[in-house]
Write a structure and sequence with these properties.
Elements (H helix, E strand, L loop, with lengths): L5 H6 L4 E4 L1 H16 L4 E5 L6 H9 L3 E4 L2 H9 L7 E3 L6 H9 L4 E4 L2 H13 L4 E6 L28 H10 L3 E7 L10 H19 L6 E3 L19 H11 L7 E6 L1 H4 L3 E12 L4 E5 L8 H5 L5 E3 L6 E7 L8 E9 L6 E4 L20 E4 L1
Parallel strand pairs: 1-16, 2-3, 2-9, 3-4, 4-5, 5-6, 6-7, 7-8, 8-9, 11-13
Antiparallel strand pairs: 1-10, 10-11, 10-15, 12-15, 13-14
Helix pairs in contact: 5-6, 8-9
The structure holds ligand LLP.
């Protein structure tokens, strides 16, 4: 953060994102080293951050990509990712998106329902193609993260429930334009405890037995993403513990001979390299609270409003003793609040504030609500 000189920060029109490329590259190198130990394949979950400069670096490092829309497939292709390394998930794939993926001969569709399976088969047939598919299985595991970002519970909309797997296999046997090549799981996001991943491995071992019994050769298992980052201490823990994470899968999942193991990591790759930079517009003394009013709001970073997410906030220009503030944005909604009763150096109009750990699900989730401009991004 200090590398990006304050003088320069003052010159630029706030709010904007800055990305620390050193952190990004070191993170990517660490993922690559740790995944290579076991021959694992990593697809970057583009939904976390689709900034073209970031995509280019991820692509240059040889990673694949995980897409959830036709727009993401196009962004990945434009950034130079090879279609052979694209996986495509999502409960609501539109026909044009399926056709786009077929046209590019992507690595695999992660199929989330029986109706979707039939539509992919139909469109592949029309295009004279065989679509490679993985069944996205809902492993029915409870993950203790924010309820908006758990995906693998029985009641979630994602994936195919365990009790429907036999029916799905029967249907796949009858379809001529799809080829079952793997299984896909994704249990949620911002998971920092390894226990749910261990449970996922154990569940995957059981599920795999069903396929073996039916003489189905699963060429790959994709365990999705979900590894969390340290939002409380971004400087000390700028690189997540990929070693521990991959080691869980190596220890607890029993891969078959020649079976390839894939992952779709988003937040853990880009989360710590980005910060949202904002200027203090006003310090307002209410009758019970002091408010720091920023020129950034949930239009630039929605995570605190949407998930009550915690982000470190630093006043980069003040050296005075601390005070306690509610740190809010300018949007006309009470939920436009980054932090309540947060300790910050004594703050004045014009100070520059950094909201840390905003590289994932930050810029990419920004909106133009209130007819605001989308934030720019800078790299150092
Ligand atoms: N694969 C699938 C199928 C996913 O749905 C996701 C994230 C990922 C991979 C990547 O997960 P990650 O490694 O980033 O945890 N906007 C929320 C997070 C939503 C996650 C959606 N799915 C947030 O700001 O916390």
């Amino acid at each position: 953060m200090k590398d990006f000189r304050i003088k320069k920060m003052l010159e630029l029109q706030t709010p904007y994102y800055i990305y620390n490329m050193k952190v990004l590259k070191e993170t990517l190198q660490t993922v690559a080293i740790e995944a290579n130990k076991y021959g694992y394949y990593v697809h970057y979950a583009i939904k976390a951050n689709a900034n073209i400069q970031i995509l280019s670096i991820v692509q240059e490092m040889g990673f694949g990509v995980d897409c959830v829309s036709g727009g993401e497939i196009s962004a990945a292709i434009d950034a130079g990712f090879s279609a052979e390394k694209i996986v495509f998930a999502g409960v609501g794939k539109a026909d044009w998106e399926i056709n786009l993926a077929l046209e590019h001969d992507i690595f695999c569709f992660n199929v989330e329902s029986i109706p979707e399976l039939k539509v992919i088969n139909y469109l592949a047939h029309l295009n004279g193609k065989i679509a490679k598919i993985a069944i996205r299985v809902n492993p029915e595991i409870n993950v203790y993260t924010h309820h908006h970002i758990t995906t693998g519970r029985k009641e979630n909309k994602f994936g195919i429930n365990l009790d429907q797997l036999d029916d799905v296999i029967d249907i796949i046997f009858m379809l001529s334009s799809v080829q079952l090549v793997g299984l896909h799981f994704h249990i949620g996001s911002q998971i920092t405890d390894m226990v749910p991943f261990k449970l996922l491995c154990k569940q995957a071992n059981e599920i795999q037995k069903k396929f073996i019994r039916r003489n189905i050769d699963l060429k790959h298992i994709n365990f999705g993403g979900g590894l969390g980052i340290n939002y409380e201490n971004p400087d000390e823990f700028s690189i997540p513990n990929f070693q521990e994470y991959f080691d869980v899968f190596n220890t607890y999942f029993f891969a078959l001979n020649n079976q390839k193991i894939h992952f779709e990591l988003g937040r853990s790759i880009v989360g710590q390299c980005g910060s949202l930079i904002s200027k203090v517009l006003y310090v307002k003394e209410g009758s019970v609270k002091k408010f720091v009013i920023l020129d950034a709001g949930f239009t630039e970073l929605i995570r605190p409003a949407f998930y009550e997410a915690y982000h470190v906030i630093e006043n980069l220009t003040s050296n005075e003793f601390a005070d306690v503030y509610d740190i809010v944005g300018p949007i006309c909604e009470s939920s436009d609040c980054f932090a309540k009763q947060r300790i910050l150096k004594k703050t004045h109009r014009g100070d520059i504030v950094a909201i840390r750990s905003a590289g994932a699900y930050g810029e990419v989730m920004s909106s133009q609500y209130n007819c605001r401009r989308l934030p720019k991004s800078y790299f150092f």
